[in-house]
Amino acid sequence: MTRRFLLAFSLALGLGLDLAPVASRSAVRGVELPARLSDRDFWRIATDFSEPSGFFRSDTLTSNELGFQRVIPDLVGRTRRGGTYLGVGPEQNFTYIAAVRPALAIIFDIRRGNMLVQLRYKALFELAKDRADFVSMLFSKPRPPGLGPKSTAVDLFSAFAASATSDALYEQTLKAIQNQLTKTHGLPLAADDLTGIEYVHHTFYRNGFAVRPSPTYAELMTQTDGAGVNRSYLATEDRFALLKELESKNLVVPVVGDFGGPKAIRAVGGYLKERGTTVTAFYLSNVEQYLYQNKMTAFCRNVAALPLDASSTFIRSSSRDGGGFVSSLSAMTVEVKNCGRF
After folding, report:
1. 33, 264, 270, 303: which could join 275 in a potential S-S bond, CB 3.0 to 4.6 Å?
2. pLDDT tens-digit map of 71-117
3. What's the domain range around 97?
4. Range 45-48, long-range pairs (CB < 8 A, 24+ positions)
5. Strand-pair partners of 150
6. Number of structural domains the chain divides into
7. Can you give the pTM of this predicted structure?
8. 331: part of which helix (H) or strand (E)?
């Protein structure tokens, strides 16, 4: 391992778009990555591949990485469309998914609570006809007039900032989310799961854009890639529509798992290998800084068991002097060659 890699592991672990996801054409033993997952298969992956829920010190309902878009131009140049995206955490994954356009996305988190965050997003993507409807339901704010396909993210969040929250819309949307998940998809969610989804929904309703006081959701969605281009998943209708289609086809699957755990990553890896697809990108946030204490070797070996190629790319977020985070990219195949050195 290079000195730079070791340092990164110790410090971090923080565009035209077609609307149809690209299906993997390569296959092993005649099995292909599906163009759509049935509700049964979606839930089987989400539950059978998962590990017991673990602990983290906060809910992490939104990202705190303001500069996460800055690596996207390089990321798009490094990776290939199709394949599988892996990630961790909440909404920043959607922006990276919109950039790399995978055929399948798996979002891990050590907490079952993040699975519930992702299930709420799934329902909202499916229920919303466009970005303005989505933001309306996300924050229980009535849709302001004048928003349309050409509205920018700044237009959206400026308009909704002046829209008061609505108790009636909150209740209506919560019921629609529950029905979408349990009746439309038939997911056997336990009472505690439904309570957890309600908790997330109420937090967005109560706190508005300041789900995390800083940065706010509006600040995250209106950032740029450093060259003045907003690449957030709510920047354009095309990006939003890509996510809506993937979610509607059950192709964004939340899995509960510890990056250094014995099951989740390896189960996903086995599934992908059987279907002849590779990992396009793996967004790590800043999780490695916690794994470095005693699980880095296990994590490295888990990643080494994934189907990778030369274009497979890690996306990291590292804390920097003076506060904040900086995102970076690296080749996965290079970094997992010598896992035993941790």
Report:
1. 33
2. 999 999 999 999 999 999 999 999 999 999 999 999 999 999 999 99
3. 3-341
4. 45/106, 45/253, 45/255, 45/268, 45/271, 46/115, 46/253, 46/254, 46/255, 48/267
5. none
6. 1
7. 0.90
8. strand 325-331
